[in-house]
Amino acid sequence: MRRRPLTWLIPVLATATAAAVTVTAVVVPQGDDREPQGRSVPAAHGERPAGKGKPDARDVVLAVHGGAGTALDRDKTTPEREKAYRDGLGKALRAGQKVLDKGGSSVDAVQAAVVELEDDPLFNAGKGAVFTADAGHELDASIMRGSDLGAGAVAGVKSLRNPITGARTVMDRSPHVLLAGEGADDFGARHGLKTVTQDYYWTQARWDALMAAKAAEKGGKGGGRAADAPAAVADAQSKGTVGAVAVDKRRDLAAATSTGGMTNKLPGRVGDSPLIGSGTYAKNSTVAASATGAGEVFIRGAATSTISSLVEFKGADVASAAYEVIVKRLPKLGGDGGVIALAPDGEFDAPHSSPGMLHGYLTKSGKVVTKIFPDETPPNT
User: Fold this and answer.
1) Is the Cβ–Cβ distance between 64 and 258 less than 8 Å?
2) Helix axes 163-173, 181-190, angle to 10 degrees
3) CB neighbour list of residue 77: distance below 8 Å, 6 or more residues apart
4) What pLDDT, in 10s, does the model give residues 197-217?
5) Would residue 237 be called left, alpha or beta, if left means φ above 0 and alpha means ψ between -120 and 50 degrees?
């Protein structure tokens, strides 16, 4: 039985957790020249992306993103918090890598990566979901298979532990693409998915962020002490969504995205994350992409499907197509954000119009790279 949003709020619950983020993963065929699996390493300090419409990396087999916003501030991020973010991204990458190394599908790989991010309270998805205006939690997710354009999504779910598993179940076990609200929760429960009560999603970080947002609504200067807390600072530093894109040994692409939405959002609000063609898209002949940022703008701009269309109909490469949409088109609609985009041949790009975007990727040789600070991933403008 699900609880009403306000009945379970217990102030003594505490566990300071960190910022809202979103994650996405990308995978390509594995070769036999893999290097030994090592620890996640940061991008070189001051390393800049290749530039306008140029790929960030090649031979990428898996990539994840953890949100677009101002990214994390080096001056306000402790070594412990930095390690937690890099470890979180790295754990998701390795979860997907395990699937691919065993010859698993790209769909299984992106699902595995996103589940790890949903279970990590640092990220705004699953366990770390933000609060709605009425102090509840409503989560969205989607997944897409590039081989046949199969897709599944859930929106506004309140009791699925891992919304991405709900999206996968809709794709595999229903004739529909998108289920919402109580119907989506019930569908997942009937098919044996893990369910939770709303208090499962509660974290001190997200509660502090909601209180800061409420204080700002009343005309305060950001919520006083709440606004200065690490949790509130972190929530302001990133726009939360997690997601994954991949291509397996059969050269099948896949993409997945999951989010808790926006802090203090109106109950019932749905962003781009569960919408195929906006927050998520995968087509074997073009691209696998997962987006993060200003959801309403990504919906209006049909962000991820437009990237695919530019590749298919204009003959653009993935990096230039992603740059065209994310940096040149969407900001004109009034919002910023980013995307991770993967071509079938392993060309990878992560353009963003926001000051930063948390993400990481795994190369064919086994190298893991994570980028969480603005100087590691400056905007492509």
Assistant:
1) no
2) 80
3) 372, 373
4) 999 999 999 999 999 999 988
5) alpha
